[in-house]
Amino acid sequence: MTHLQAGLSPETLEKARLELNENPDTLHQDIQEVRDMVITRPDIGFLRTDDAFILRFLRARKFQHFEAFRLLAQYFEYRQQNLDMFKSFKATDPGIKQALKDGFPGGLANLDHYGRKILVLFAANWDQSRYTLVDILRAILLSLEAMIEDPELQVNGFVLIIDWSNFTFKQASKLTPSMLRLAIEGLQDSFPARFGGIHFVNQPWYIHALYTVIRPFLKEKTRKRIFLHGNNLNSLHQLIHPEILPSEFGGMLPPYDMGTWARTLLDHEYDDDSECNADSYNTPAKDTEKDLSPKSMKRSQSVVDPGVLKRMDKNEEENMQPLLSLD
């Protein structure tokens, strides 16, 4: 075991060897092979190429050198192409701070039975008057940056649960193709995290319709890890034990405290709202949303044509079986 594996438990070391092809005898050589590829992309500013940083990309791509380098390049390219998103990229930024305090994202105290961190989002908590969807994405990315420092999570990964209860049609109309593309690129294509499952619960019919629209733009591997449970929490419990879930998900624990993760990131600044005045909210982020010009999703700014949605049977969801796909 090298010093780069010092933060891993014996069980996780074995998992890294078996599932990710991580070999302590060739670890430094693997890292160097990825680093040597940096010169092939002079158009990208690689701001970090240290061993520990490159290692998380190798783990995310099961030590396939070229795939790890491509992810590394996309990580920095995404930041170059969306500069406004990463200005004031810190927990105390007004928009990010308010999103964090509303539980975007939340993190459960207990890991699942695979050692994965469970992230939770309560979609209806979004306060459109105080921060934008871009701010929510920034808060999620910032949180992942902090969490991925843990080598255990680099190997074991994450699970995401999104509760769509009380998420309105008006809120859903803000999920434009450009916004969704920005999120897909930031989370699926440009970040070194392993997501073992993305669970939708209590999703209304229009979220199900929206998912069918974006599904073609997701990688097959991502699609296999998305589970649409609807109101069937028993199917969720088959994959994540209720003993570690809060009551909102039919679990045995008390209701989730939305400020738990925010207090971890913000510490003593959690209750300091001096930066959060009405004039300072989200002007750069709003401009980012307005100026997005997707290359691949060339549709109108409405994800699904409202006329089509209105013609859909609003009771359709009740008849839909959860789309469970065990990997």
From TrEMBL:
Region described as Disordered: spans on this chain: 275-327
Pfam families in the record: CRAL_TRIO, CRAL_TRIO_N
Key words of the record: Cytoplasmic vesicle, Endosome, Golgi apparatus, Lipid-binding, Membrane
Main localisation: cytoplasm
Native source species: Neopipo cinnamomea
Function recorded in the entry: Required for normal morphology of late endosomes and/or lysosomes in neurons. Binds phosphatidylinositol 3,5-bisphosphate (PtdIns(3,5)P2).
Top-rank taxon, per record: Eukaryota
Xref: InterPro entries: CRAL-TRIO_dom, CRAL-TRIO_dom_sf, CRAL/TRIO_N_dom, CRAL/TRIO_N_dom_sf
GO cellular component, as recorded: clathrin-coated vesicle; early endosome membrane; trans-Golgi network
Assembly with partners or alone: Forms a complex with clathrin heavy chain and gamma-adaptin.
Any single GO BP term: lysosome organization
Domain CRAL-TRIO: 96-257
Protein name as it appears in the record: Clavesin-2
Gene Ontology MF: a single term: phosphatidylinositol bisphosphate binding
Recorded topology in the membrane: Peripheral membrane protein
UniProt lineage: Eukaryota, Metazoa, Chordata, Craniata, Vertebrata
